[in-house]
Design goal:
The protein is mainly alpha-helical. The chain has a single domain, classed as Up-down Bundle (Four Helix Bundle (Hemerythrin (Met), subunit A)). It is built from six helices and two strands, in the order αααααββα. β1 and β2 form a beta hairpin. α1 runs antiparallel to α5, α3 packs parallel to α5 and α3 packs antiparallel against α6. It starts with a helix and ends in a 9-residue tail after the last helix. The model has no long low-confidence stretch (mean pLDDT 97).
């Protein structure tokens, strides 16, 4: 898990300056009523971080915790569209640093413990998937070459 934490830390350091250079107007733009703005995508990444923090922690002491969330409801109820962009970016940054800390301190044997999301996965699989999901959305927000994510 230490290697995954290092990879996540590298991603944070690489993408944070680009996020900090985004404009409030660009990020608040909603392509349609049913599509998320970039602020809402950032909010979704924050929700994903929060839920994965719970998985990485509860998965170490609970026997196969069941942790899922309704991403559309989380984004809507959190009201990310009305957040200050710099606060969203700071929150994203700090939550991801916290994930690095959790993963770096996770004993090796815990990586194979399981957590139930929509499917049953190891904590290691969830950490690797978290990075793929994060890159997918970072590229979306930053108008970069798409990163496929299932």
């Amino acid at each position: 898990m230490k290697a995954i934490a290092t990879e996540l830390e590298t991603i944070i350091d690489r993408y944070l300056p680009a996020l900090q250079n985004l404009s409030e107007d660009d990020c608040a733009y909603k392509p349609s009523v049913s599509k998320w703005s970039k602020k809402e995508v950032l909010g979704h990444m924050i929700d994903s971080a929060q839920n994965n923090i719970r998985r990485f922690i509860a998965g170490q002491y609970e026997e196969v915790p069941f942790i899922v969330y309704n991403q559309d409801k989380w984004v809507a109820i959190s009201g990310y569209q009305h957040y200050d962009l710099s606060q969203l970016i700071n929150l994203w940054h700090l939550l991801n640093r916290h994930i690095c800390h959790i993963l770096r301190n996770m004993p090796d044997e815990m990586a194979l413990r399981k957590c139930q999301t929509e499917d049953l996965h190891t904590l290691e699989w969830l950490a690797q998937d978290y990075i793929k999901h994060l890159l997918h959305h970072l590229h979306q927000v930053l108008n970069m070459e798409p990163v496929n994510y299932p």
